[in-house]
Design goal:
By secondary structure, the chain is α+β, with helices and mostly antiparallel strands. The chain contains 6 helices and 12 strands. The strands form 3 sheets. It has an 8-stranded antiparallel beta sheet with strand order 1-2-12-11-8-7-6-5. Strands 3-4 form a two-stranded antiparallel sheet.
């Protein structure tokens, strides 16, 4: 029955002639053979870029690839430049689809109180003391989760009180089709590192892609930041971003 359904959908796409993407994505076709082999073996891959331009070596070939490249930063010699890419394979529990992923990601308020293991503090801690959609960057008026219908083309604003980086409003830009979800976001306020205002507005960029690969989802996470050159900043950022990416992956997996 499943094979018949897939053939029906393929025939429909050929007839309409307006969508070049299949209903589900073949993982082998959107990552390199080396990356595929590592994903099969380990289930996840990480690459970091220290004082280097990011080359997006792990970015999957999906409909929203260019959105992530556009939402990146060039290396700034006057600042400390750091970037990280992560790929995860998340097995499906049942028959989840991209609409479920989209709704989960836009249920932002559920991230309030999210716990994670902090590598910098070497203990479990709260990642977000508060997290919710706001009406605008200026009013910061709390509004309900914007998780109804398709996310495609929507721009929203999110307030986060991060245990490490402090209070900040982010601009979220969403993209979605039948097999891929993407969100690109950046900070609109200064981010703190200890007592320092270390990351200026728009100097932290984050990209998320989730591709429906049939029995599993492929999750791509990317963080790109230019910040003040502070003692120990490389180790601090490395630990902080690894902790956050792992926490985000676990949160998504548990939300589906």
């Amino acid at each position: 029955m499943k094979k018949i359904r897939q053939l029906f959908v393929l025939a429909a796409f050929m007839f309409v002639g307006t969508n070049i993407w299949a209903e589900v994505i073949d993982l082998k076709k959107i990552v390199s053979s080396n990356v595929y082999d590592l994903l099969v073996k380990k289930g996840q891959i990480m690459t970091t870029y220290v004082q280097k331009d990011i080359n997006f070596g792990l970015l999957p070939e999906t409909a929203f690839k260019e959105k992530c490249i556009e939402n990146s930063l060039e290396r700034d010699e006057s600042l400390f430049s750091y970037a990280m890419e992560y790929l995860y394979v998340i097995p499906k529990k049942d028959d989840e689809n991209i609409s479920d992923v989209s709704k989960a990601f836009r249920s932002i308020s559920k991230m309030t109180g999210l716990r994670y293991f902090s590598l910098n503090r070497n203990k479990e801690d709260v990642l977000y003391k508060a997290c919710y959609f706001v009406e605008s960057p200026d009013s910061k008026k709390k509004i309900a989760d914007q998780n109804e219908g398709s996310a495609d083309g929507k721009t929203c604003y999110v307030f986060q009180h991060d245990t490490s980086f402090g209070k900040c409003v982010y601009e979220f830009n969403f993209h979605e089709n039948e097999n891929t979800f993407c969100v690109n976001f950046h900070n609109l306020n200064y981010l703190g590192v200890g007592p320092f205002r270390a990351v200026a507005p728009e100097k932290m960029r984050l990209n998320v892609i989730v591709a429906d690969c049939g029995d599993s989802f492929l999750l791509y996470l990317n963080t790109n930041v230019n910040c003040s050159k502070l003692p120990g900043i490389e180790n601090y950022l490395n630990n902080s971003l690894i902790s956050r990416m792992n926490a985000l992956e676990k949160w998504l997996e548990n939300s589906l």
